[in-house]
Design a protein that fits this description.
Cytochrome Bc1 Complex, Chain D, domain 2, two-stranded antiparallel sheet
Length: about 180
C-alpha cells in the first residue's frame, strides 16, 4: 500500500511539473511571436514600403529571411522569431462552432499578445508605429470597420501592410470588446 501511495505521489509530481513546463513553453512561444512582429516593425519597415506579409508564402519567406538576416544584421533568434510570427499569422482560423465557443474562453488581451498586434500598433502608449494606435480605433472607425479590417486587412487599402490574421468571428469580437472596454 505504501508503494502505491509513493507511485501516485510521483505521478502527481511528474504531471504537475509537466504542466508548469508547458505553461512556460506557451508563454515563451507567445513572447517569440510578439517579438517577431516587433522585429518586422523595427527593422523591415525601416527600409521597405509597407506591403502585405501574405504577399509571400511561408516557403518564400524561408528563402527571403536568410538574405534579409544578413542585410538587416538580425541574429538567428530574431530571424526565427520573425518566421514564428509569419507561421502564426498564416494559420487557419479556429472553427466558429457553438461547441468551440462554449468551451473556449476568448480573451482580447491574450489575442493581442498572441498575434503580436503591438509589434506594429501602439496601445496604451506602448508598441510599434507602423500601424495606427489602437486606443480609440473602435470609437473613431466603428465596430463594422474594425471587423472588416480584421477579416480582410486590405479591404479599404490594397497596399495595407497589415497581415490577415487567422481569427474566428468570436476572436474578432473579443478583440473589439477588449479595445472598446480597455
Amino acid at each position: 500500500m505504501n508503494d502505491s501511495l509513493i507511485i501516485r505521489a510521483l505521478r502527481i509530481t511528474f504531471c504537475t511539473t509537466l504542466l508548469a513546463l508547458s505553461g512556460q513553453t506557451v508563454a515563451a512561444e507567445v513572447a517569440e511571436v510578439a517579438g517577431g512582429a516587433e522585429i518586422i516593425n523595427n527593422n523591415c519597415a525601416r527600409c521597405h514600403n509597407s506591403r502585405p506579409i501574405q504577399e509571400f508564402s511561408i516557403q518564400e519567406w524561408s528563402v527571403i529571411m536568410p538574405h534579409m538576416r544578413e542585410k538587416a544584421h538580425l541574429t538567428g533568434l530574431e530571424t526565427e522569431a520573425v518566421m514564428d510570427f509569419l507561421r502564426t499569422i498564416s494559420g487557419v482560423p479556429e472553427e466558429n462552432t457553438a461547441s468551440t465557443v462554449a468551451t473556449t474562453a476568448v480573451d482580447g488581451s491574450e489575442l493581442m499578445t498572441r498575434f503580436g498586434c503591438q509589434g506594429c500598433h501602439a496601445f496604451k502608449g506602448q508598441g510599434g508605429a507602423l500601424g495606427p494606435a489602437l486606443d480609440s480605433v473602435v470609437e473613431q472607425k466603428g465596430t463594422a470597420f474594425v471587423q472588416n479590417k480584421l477579416k480582410d486587412p486590405q479591404f479599404n487599402n490594397p497596399a495595407s501592410a497589415m497581415p490577415k490574421m487567422p481569427l474566428s468571428d468570436v476572436q474578432i469580437n473579443a478583440l473589439i470588446d477588449f479595445l472598446t472596454h480597455k
